[in-house]
Amino acid sequence: MRAMSLNTGTYLNVFLWVTMAFCGTVQYFTQVDAVLWLPLFMALIMVMLLLMQTHFSPVDLDPQDGVVITLFIGFFMMTMISTFWQDGALVTIVGLKNEIALSLILFCMVMGFCRESQIYRLIRSCYLIFYIQWPIIMYQVLVCVPHRVAFKGPYEMWDSVVGTFGGNPMGGGNSASLGFFCLLIMLLKVSEYKHGLSSLLSVAIHLTLSFILCVVGEVKFVILLAPVLLIYVWFAPSYIKGMKTADLKVVLGILAGTGVLMTLAITVLASGYKDAFGGEQNKNVFEIFFDSISYIFDPDYILPNGDLGRMTTIFFWAKHSDLHGISNVFFGYGLNTTNSGSTISPGFLNKVLNVTLDSTSLSVLLWEVGLIGTSLFFGTIWYILRVGKPKPLFDREKLTESDIRLMSFQPALIAFGIACLLSLPYSQILTLVPNSEFIFYFSLGAIMVIRKSLLKAASQGYGC
């Protein structure tokens, strides 16, 4: 049983590297999209390994685990059955690969696929992946961006800068995925500093590097959201008794530091927009920046090519969701029916309605799994974030550094889960981009694994 446990943890680490580093890099430099099928196969193998593991040791689920598994199975089975019934086997397989296969990571982790010690190693791998972004991004900035500008002009030229997160250097890359990954690193570092595990210099370096990547990738959502979530992490409860969070100097320092970085980021982005597209000379950088994101909140923003604004997708669904009857409002039209980029099985709804419906994950969920499926999806995530909230259970002097570091992950992972929820009406990365899906479902699974292991340790008197 110990060998099986070790193998599953190692497998999940390999899965992490393949999805977060290998697949995107290969796709970006070779334009071979078939490599994106690897995460699907690895997710299915993960389920088979879980079955082998549970053959040798019983599944140990507490009531909270049971609720998560019930909600997840309800969402997964309803989605698969609805898609197969309406659209057939091919669409079901393609939709599984594109949208929900990696949610099996959450299922397996809650079922006991890996232990808390393996979570520690996986988080360390996330840091390594963050560091290797830099040489790749330098190449993309120095080689790929000038090449794109020469062929397509300066419009959205920084979409070519995506690190290992994949995309088309001449079209659009997954810069939003890179930005969200940088957000996770920022949250982890601030939480480590809060728990006395990292120096202020280390935090400053990681935050600065992360903001630079977000500026280069033009990830406005993360730039604006990061300061709020960093403050949340600082004030979030901890598993350690007596943690001081109301340190005015530290709070002001975080606000000042992130404020300066955010101001610099907005200035650089706004200057770039002004140089590339022109604009009114009397407008300051903040007006230019916020003008560039004003379309997000427009309820009636439809471009000539059929692209919908972020807010427009919700109003458009409310108006047209009963296209084939009221049942589709509640159960959706099936997976992949909004996918505008698939070559194997393009979504039919885009053709019927003559617009692009997959610009946000919330739009994808509403159209494909309906109100019931979307409610189950939100319910699963909300419940995990709720039950995963730390409570002060341990005395610091009775804990090892590794124990404290594991406990420091929880507030950061919860904050990242909140960020992902907030991104659903803004971006499509949680339903169409494998590396973002992986880190999202891994974070949710890690919350449940850490919660369960620490509650069990506390019940046995460890560190109390």
Brief overview:
This protein has 464 residues and is mainly alpha-helical. It is 69% helix and 0% strand. The protein is globular, with a radius of gyration of 22 Å.
Biggest sheet character: none
What percent of residues adopt helix (DSSP H or I)?
55-70%
State the end-to-end CA separation.
29 Å
Low-confidence stretches: 1-6
SSE string, helices as H and strands as E: HHHHHHHHHHHHHHHHHH
Can you tell me the overall shape? globular
Report Rg: 22 Å
Query: Count the helices. How many?
Result: 18
Q: Give the DSSP E fraction (strand runs of 2 or more residues).
A: under 5%
Structural class: mainly alpha
Give a count of the beta strands, DSSP E runs of length 2 or more.
0
Mean pLDDT: 85
Key phrases:
single chain; about 475 residues; mainly alpha; 18 helices; globular
Describe this structure in words.
There is one protein chain. The chain is an all-alpha fold and 464 residues long. It is 69% helix and 0% strand. It has helices spanning 2-30, 38-56, 63-87, 89-100, 104-110, 116-152, 175-194, 200-216, 220-235, 248-277, 285-292, 310-320, 327-331, 348-353, 361-387, 401-423, 429-432, 434-459. The radius of gyration is 22 Å and the shape is globular.
Strand-helix topology:
Elements: H1 2-30, H2 38-56, H3 63-87, H4 89-100, H5 104-110, H6 116-152, H7 175-194, H8 200-216, H9 220-235, H10 248-277, H11 285-292, H12 310-320, H13 327-331, H14 348-353, H15 361-387, H16 401-423, H17 429-432, H18 434-459
